[in-house]
Amino acid sequence: xxxxxxxxxxxxxxxxxxxxxxxxxxxxxxxxxxxxxxxxxxxxxxxxxxxxxxxxxxxxxxxxxxxxxxxxxxxxxxxxxxxxxxxxxxxxxxxxxxxxxxxxxxxxxxxxxxxxxxxxxxxxxxxxxxxxxxxxxxxxxxxxxxxxxxxxxxxxxxxxxxxxxxxxxxxxxxxxxxxxxxxxxxxxxxxxxxxxxxxxxxxxxxxxxxxxxxxxxxxxxxxxxxxxxxxxxxxxxxxxxxxxxxxxxxxxxxxxxxxxxxxxxxxxxxxxxxxxxxxxxxxxxxxxxxxxxxxxxxxxxxxxxxxxx
Length: 309
Fold this sequence. Notes:
Order of helices and strands: HHEEEEEEHEEEEEEEHEEH
Largest sheet: 4 strands, antiparallel
Strand content: 15-25%
Low-confidence stretches: 146-152
Strand order of the largest sheet: 1-7-3-4
Number of strands: 15
C-alpha cells in the first residue's frame, strides 16, 4: 500500500492580499502607468497582467513570512508529529503555522495509524497564539482510547509517558476573502468567496477606498457560512470583489512595493512619474531594489517562529 503524508494539507483558498482597485488607489502605486503592461493590449489585458503581478507579489509575501508551504491566508491544516504528554497528561502542540484560530480535531496513538480520537471542547483544549494544549482526557474526564492496542495502553500506562504519534487539524492565519455580490448601505450581511478563519465576534476591515469600514461578526454567525452576518448595519455600498480581511494594512503595503519592484525590474514597463512631475521611462535597477527591500522590511514582524516542547 502507499502511505500518504498527512502533513500540511491545506484547505481553503489562498486569496490575493488586495484588489486591483486598492492597488490603483494607492499613492505609492500612482507612479505607474497602468496602460503599458501589455503592449497594444486592451484595458482588460492590462488589468489581467496587473492581477497576475499582485498574485505573484502575494506569493513572495507568503514565502518570506511562512516558508515554502505556508500562507498568511486563513487555511485549515492537518499535521502530524511525535509528542510526549507532560505529567498532567497534556499534549503541548506547536503546529507549523500561527496565529492559531481554532483546533478542530486531535488524535494520538502508541503506534502509527492507531488513533485515539479526543473529542475537543473548551474543557480539554486551550488555545494560545502559537501553540495549543490538549488534555489526554475526553468528556467527563475519561481517557480517550480505541483500537486493538487500547487495553495494552491502559494497563501499561504507555500513553502517559512515552512518545506518541499525534495528528491534528487546525485553522491558522488571517481571514482574507472577497465579496461575491454588491451590497448596499444599511445591509447587515455580505456573501464572500471563502469564510475560512471567520468566527462570531471577529472584527474585519472592508477595504474599499474612501468607503473603508470596520465590521464585527454577529454573535449568531455560524463559522464556515459564506454569508457573513454583522452585528450592525453597513455604512456604505460595496461592489462585488471588495476585500474583507483581518490582515493588517502593512501586508497590503508590502504587496504594493513588490508589484512596483517587479514592474520596474522589467525595464520596459512604461513611464513613471518623478517627484518633480516629469515622466521618465522605468529602467531595470532604477528603484526596484528599494521597493523590494521596503516590502521585506514591512514583513519582518510576520515571519513565523517554530519550536516544540
